[in-house]
Amino acid sequence: MSVPPRFRSVNSDEREFRSVLGPTGNKLQRKPPGMKLEKPMIEKKTIIESKDEETKKPTTPASPRTTLKQCSSLCSSILRKNSASMTASYSSDASSSCESSPLSVASSSSCKKVMRRSGSVSSTRKLSIGKEEDKVAGDCFADGRRRCAWITPKADPCYVAFHDEEWGVPVDDDKKLFELLCLSGALAELSWTDILSRRQLLREVFMDFDPVAVSEMNDKKLTAPGTAAISLLSEVKIRSILDNSRHVRKIIAECGSFKKYMWNFVNNKPTQSQFRYQRQVPVKTSKAEFISKDLVRRGFRSVSPTVIYSFMQAAGLTNDHLIGCFRFQDCCVDAETTTTTTKAKKKNEREGDK
C-alpha cells in the first residue's frame, strides 16, 4: 500500500507565495482563507517592475521562461505586421492596375488574375524567343541554310561544297561512279577533307578515273618511290585502284555499263532514308553487305560493307541527308527525275527491240 506523503508543519504567518510548475505553466499558489493580501501586492509590483526592466533591456533576460514567452510574442507581432503590409501592398497594386487598365470596373481579384496571366504569357514568350535563338545559333552559316549535323561552320570549304553539290546526288556516269568508289576506298586511310583536298591531283594521276585508261596503266611506274601517286596514297590503295579498274572494265563488257550494274541493286530508285538525327545514320546496311560480297566475288579489293555504304551515300544510291538539311528535298527531286529518265530509256529500248 502507498504511504501518504509527510508534510512539514509551517506557521501560516511565515508561509510565502511561491511559483509552482503546473500543467499549463507557472502559477501562484492560491491564497489560503483568512490571509491578508499585502505580500501578493508586493510581489505583483516586483513582477511589473521586472517586466519593465525586461522590456527596457531585452538582451539580458531575467529567466529563460520569460524569454521564450517574449520571443513568441515578438514573432507573432512581426508576422502580423508583415502580413498587414503585404496585403496593403497587394491591394494598392491591384487598385492601381485596375485604375490604369480600360476595365476599371473589374474587381481586385480579376485584376490579380490578369496580372498573373500576363506574367505567364510574357514568360512563355521569353522561353519561345530563347528557343528560337538557340535554333538560329545552331545554324550559324553565312548563307542561313541548315545542313547536316556533321557539316559545321568550321568545316573545310571543299567539304561543305561536296556536301552541297555532289553528296547524295544520283550519279549515272561510269567515270564518276568509279571515281567515287576509289575515293570511298581511301577513307580507310584518310578523311573526306584530306581526300577532297587531293582530288584534283588524284584525277591527274589516274587519268580522270577512266576505268579503261586506268586498267592499262603500269603498276611499277605508279608505285615507284618518288612518284606523285605514292605521295598521295599508299601502295596498297594504288594497287587496289588498278585492280578494280580492270574488274570494272569486265563489268562494262558484261552488263553494258558500270552504272547499270550498280543501280540494279536498288532497282534504279534511290533509297530515301528520312533520318532526323545524326545518330540514326548507319555505318553499313544489308544492301551494302550484299553489294560488297558480289564485288569481292568478282575480285574487287578495298570494298568492305562500310566502304560500299559510303560509296552509296556519295553516289546517290541512298539519300542520307537529314530531313532538316536543305539538300534533302533537292536530292529527292533528283531521285524522281532519275527514276523517270531510266523508265523512259527502258521503254524506248523495249520499243526499239520490237
UniProtKB/TrEMBL annotation:
Annotated residues for binding of Zn(2+): C148, H163, H321, C325
Record key words, sorted: Metal-binding, Zinc
Annotated stretches, region: Disordered: 1-67
InterPro entries for this protein: Adenine_glyco (IPR005019), DNA_glycosylase (IPR011257)
Biological process annotations from GO: base-excision repair
Any coiled-coil regions, as ranges: none
Gene Ontology terms for molecular function: DNA-3-methyladenine glycosylase activity; metal ion binding
Segments of skewed composition (Polar residues): 58-67
Biased composition (Basic and acidic residues): 36-57
Keyword Zinc: yes
Pfam families for the chain: Adenine_glyco
Protein name per its UniProtKB record: Methyladenine glycosylase family protein
